[in-house]
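Follow-up to my post from last week.
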Amino acid sequence: MVAQAHTHVVRIRQSWVARVTPYLGLALVALVVAWLIVNAVKEPANFFEVLLIGVSNGALYGLVALGYTLVYGILQLINFAHGDVFMLGGMICITLVTEVFRLGEGENGFVLFLSILGLLALTMIACGLINATVELVAYRRLRNAPRLAPLITAIGASFLLSNIALAVWGPEYLTLDPILPRSEVFSVGGVEYRWNQLIVLLITVPVLLGLVYLVQNTRQGKAMRAVAQDKDAAGMMGIDVNRTISFTFLIAGALAGTAGVIYALYYTNVRFDQGFQLGLIAFTAAVLGGIGNLPGAVLGALLIGLIQAFNEGLAWHAPGASWTQSIVFGILILILVFRPAGLLGEGEPEGA
Amino acid sequence: MARHRDPLLWRGLAAAGFPGARVRWLELPGSFRRYVFPLLVLGVLLLVFLPLRNPDPGFLITCAIAYALWVMPRVPRKIVLPLVVVALAFLYPLYVDKLYALPVLETFPAMTTMVPVAIFMVMALGLNMVVGYAGLLDLGYVVFYAIGAYVAAWFASPIFAGATSNFGAAGVAPGFPGIHISIWILILAAGIITAVFGVIIGLPTLRLRGDYLAIVTLGFGEILPQVARNGENVFGFNLTNGPRGITPIDSPGFGGWSFLSEAGTYLNPTTFFYWGGLVLVAITIFSSWRLRDSRLGRAWIAIREDETAAAAMGVPLMRTKTWSYAAGAFFGGLAGCWFAAYKTGVFPDDFYFQISIFVLCMVILGGMGNIWGVLLGAAFLTYLDIEGLGNIGAWVNDNVGTNIDIPQIKFGIYGLIILAVMLFRPQGLLPEARRKAEFEDALHGDELSEPKVAGERS
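User reply:
Got it. Predicted complex:
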């Protein structure tokens, strides 16, 4: 009997849902790929143009998604107010451009370069401070409260921030005359890649590299990783946990500020209620890539950006812009239900 | 623990040269002491009212009722107070236009405000079953409200012109196109259909941990209104009539009596919908109260307090959570159906995401889990939303000299309320004793102690 028990392989019965899910997922992806190929063959120029738009969108979402993922990694908290910090960044940037820098179209390249650097620095600082203040006010007191408490205050903070923007800047779109040069950088098959699109990437890539350096190679980054892993142990090792969390919020806010600047300069109009929507899309990106995982957030954001652009831009059987939100949230729900760890996540997030 | 200090009155008297006042007071017989303070207040009230030439009778009656309830001994008060509240609520349409003016708020809520108040009370109590009892954060509650409303719209309006049927609907001319089923049947049907939908949403998602569940419900809350807006042409079929909405919805009459043409009488449509809403509120209160004390309700509270411990004690997690979803959805559907009948139309823009948060704000403000608290929160916030904020804003602008459009930033104010309540009084205005203990334990607990919630890493 004993020998038999040793040789017997224990088989865990999987439910049929769990067995069928991967195939259904693959089928869905194959369907989407087939749809893309048909579109690419039918109208290659349009496809390529939409692809470039998608990459720009993705870069923008990536910056916001990184903020979600950083905060989630350290506090296991969905910071709903993050999207609104991004929106405030856009508002601050537009106000700076029109009131302080007084830029117009066709500025001298060097002046433009310095102005963008100045805009970035000021907006990043402002948004970082806003985000750190949100943490200080809304989350710090609730560190040991039931888990839903900070989630609820996050929603309260989000509503508060967006309505502060409403009170300050009014209910209409705040618009900016385009200041980025729109001449072409290169063109492939009649599709132009313009400077304003390139500038989005020129801002995003160095910021991302800076973030990776910060998290991987600095003392503060090490502290962040330690606190994310185990707050109590990190505290006992002499790390100031609250300061590290504040710093994380500061960095996340600065990323949102960068995204705000890009959004303001590239799309040139911002409204008080856009932050929450875009924040949810970026959160979906973070979940898609695997929340808490920095490269995952960028990958998820690129995918979401592409999906959005393809959905809104392709000609053949695309559902169109009025369905974008439904598609994005549909992806969010599917990922959370069937693969909560996301694409790059290792194992399930604890407790899932 | 703060050192015990005597109330201000005794310290003041001691400072004024009567050091033994407290002791001498306590030596007086209790039957005498009990009536001294009420009599003093009565004296002050008389001093206020006697010099008035024409005191407002409504205000006098309010003061008299409040005073009588206050001095009444505890045992009859426990019975009389609810009776008085119920009577005042039901008779409200009869005396509302005879009431006096209030400071700042100006008027008592009009009947057109009281109908949404009743509807939001039902919704808040429904959400309370999910958030307050079972501790599952639902950020997409508006979905159930919308489904209830669309059930009313589909089965009691000319939307499906292909079918022509009438089942007990009032005031519908013979041969009028569309399906027409009596609203009284539809209310129940809306509740049941919505509950089934709640189970469908719940089954795959309720396995998720709390914050993921919140975000999934939020996702549903964003998707469904969009489907309603784009549902004009679902593979050639007009499901929701798109942004133009579905209208008109039949009136909830009896036989040939449709209530819709009786404006100016006591049984005008608004009064009728108010009384109907009150009946729904009463049903919801009774159900909440019985559910809470049932085996199922105790299982919900056990899950809320500690999921792991509840599972270890044999509470079936999935089934219990799904039931809480279904129960919450049922009452959301009721509210939605009644709202659609009241507005005689359904429009996708009525079901935006902020409503979910608005209802959540009611539950949090009143006190998660406490029926009376949630009712108070719902009544107060709905009144603020429809009338109060406008009046307060006008008063502030007139008296402070500012020029703020306060109703425009109302969601900021609700956000502030949510923040303030969660930070400073997480148990709400009228806390449930059990919930209060939970939060206090968490706020004043040892920093390094074990986490209170299953799966949490502190």
